[in-house]
Amino acid sequence: MSLSDRIIVPLDVPTLNEAIALLDQLPEVSFWKVGLELFVATGSDILKILKERQKRIFLDLKFHDIPNTVAGACRSASQYQVNFLTLHATAGRNALQAAAQAMSQTPSPPQLLAITLLTSLNSRELAFDLKIPLELPEYALQMALLAQESGMNGVVCSPQEVRQLRHVCGDKFLLVCPGVRPNWSKIGDQRRVMTPVEAIQAGADYLVIGRPITMADDPVAAWDKIRQELDEVC
Ligand SMILES: O=c1ccn([C@@H]2O[C@H](COP(=O)(O)O)[C@@H](O)[C@H]2O)c(=O)[nH]1
């Protein structure tokens, strides 16, 4: 797999037309993420369009509910035959296990990824707002271990935690990283960030890079620049 096949671009737009415009503009992108904004607004039509264009799909719906509901939601999502599907590790062991069990009885299931701790949160918010009495890297590690023990295929994590998670969880556990910012782009609401080169060098399997590409004045130039930066160093 080439390095550019390891970049996932989110379709974080509110309409199907805007999503299709991005697909048309960036034909070299092979892996797209559909998240809550587009899916809630337009439903599953975009998934059919991505399939017709032979793209890989990350359905990022971040399920967080009781075990029976999470398992049912994963079962329903599996009908779309997407590559990745997300749920929150904080739904707990029983919910993660119920999801894994549901997927074991599904033909061509997605790879289940648990969110460890949203990349928009920092250690101050973890301690003072969420009242978690662990250091952030330790908390992210505990969420990843919970996910691994519960049968998840991998986690969504910040690139800042990748080196430690790769070391502890091993090579087969998927590490998918949002919170990726080239040093020429705005950080926005992300808090735990690294550059694409740093994230790949730390051991990330996939990078999720959205606004630095999709909101750039010239998305094609931004995509090319990120690919070049990766090709030069990795
Ligand atoms: O912890 C998480 C989990 C998911 N995301 C999603 O990734 C993209 C990031 O987009 P950018 O524009 O590059 O910030 C977005 O769709 C999030 O919903 C995340 O950022 N952090």
UniProtKB/TrEMBL annotation:
Q: Which residues form the active site?
A: 60, 62, 65
Q: At the top level of its lineage, which domain of life is listed?
A: Bacteria
What's a single GO BP term from this record? Answer: 'de novo' UMP biosynthetic process
Query: Orotidine 5'-phosphate decarboxylase domain: which residues?
Result: 6-226
Q: Which InterPro entries match?
A: Aldolase_TIM (IPR013785), OMPdecase (IPR014732), OMPdecase_AS (IPR018089), OMPdecase_bac (IPR047596), OMPdeCOase_dom (IPR001754), RibuloseP-bd_barrel (IPR011060)
Q: What class of enzyme is it?
A: lyase
Reaction(s) catalyzed by this protein? orotidine 5'-phosphate + H(+) = UMP + CO2
EC number(s) on file: 4.1.1.23
Q: How does it assemble?
A: Homodimer.
Would you tell me the protein name for this molecule? Orotidine 5'-phosphate decarboxylase
Instruction: Specify the species.
Output: Rippkaea orientalis (strain PCC 8801 / RF-1) (Cyanothece sp. (strain PCC 8801))
The encoding gene: pyrF
